[in-house]
Amino acid sequence: MRKWWIMALVLATSFFYSKISVAASYTISITDERMVPNVIKVTAKQKTHFTIHNYGKKTHNFVLPAFYIFTPNLSPQEGTTVEFVPEKKGSFTFFSDTGGQPEPGLSGTIQVK
Question: For residues 90 and 63, what is the distance between their CA atoms, to the nearest angstrom?
Fold first, then answer.
């Protein structure tokens, strides 16, 4: 009887831990001319973590409207993190904006498969 209980516990534990997803992590660097990388490929329904750092001399932010992500303005040499789960598939634009308008050259695409 005891062997059955141990086996059930092992199976339940392995099932529980197989459902825990590990976040995919990406670092996004912003300069005054570009965002690097400017194409990011992620998996739908997988936790995604972005570390965003402003290496420019001007203030910038990170906007991914399709997933309602809007960071605060980042002063030069300042950074932030964002974590989300992309629930929809497709190609979505991210950018830095000033006064509500995307800044030239400071954009990219997230591709959710």
Answer: 17
- Using alpha carbons, list the distances in angstroms from residue 59 to 23, 35, 67, 74, 102: 28, 13, 22, 5, 13
Q: CA dihedral in degrees (62, 83, 67, 51; nearest 10)?
A: 20
Provide the pLDDT for residue 23.
85
More confident residue, 80 or 4: 80
Q: In what order do the strands lie in the sheet with 48-54?
A: 35-36, 24-30, 48-54, 79-84
Helix (H, G, I), strand (E, B) or coil at 81: strand
CATH number of 22-112: 2.60.40.420
Domains of the chain, by residue range, sit at: 22-112
Question: Given the structure tokens 């059955």, which residue do they identify?
Answer: 4
Instruction: Give CA 71 to chain center in angstroms.
Output: 12
Render pLDDT for 34-63 as a digit per residue (tens, 0 to 9).
999 999 999 999 999 999 999 999 999 999
Whole-model pTM over 0.90: no
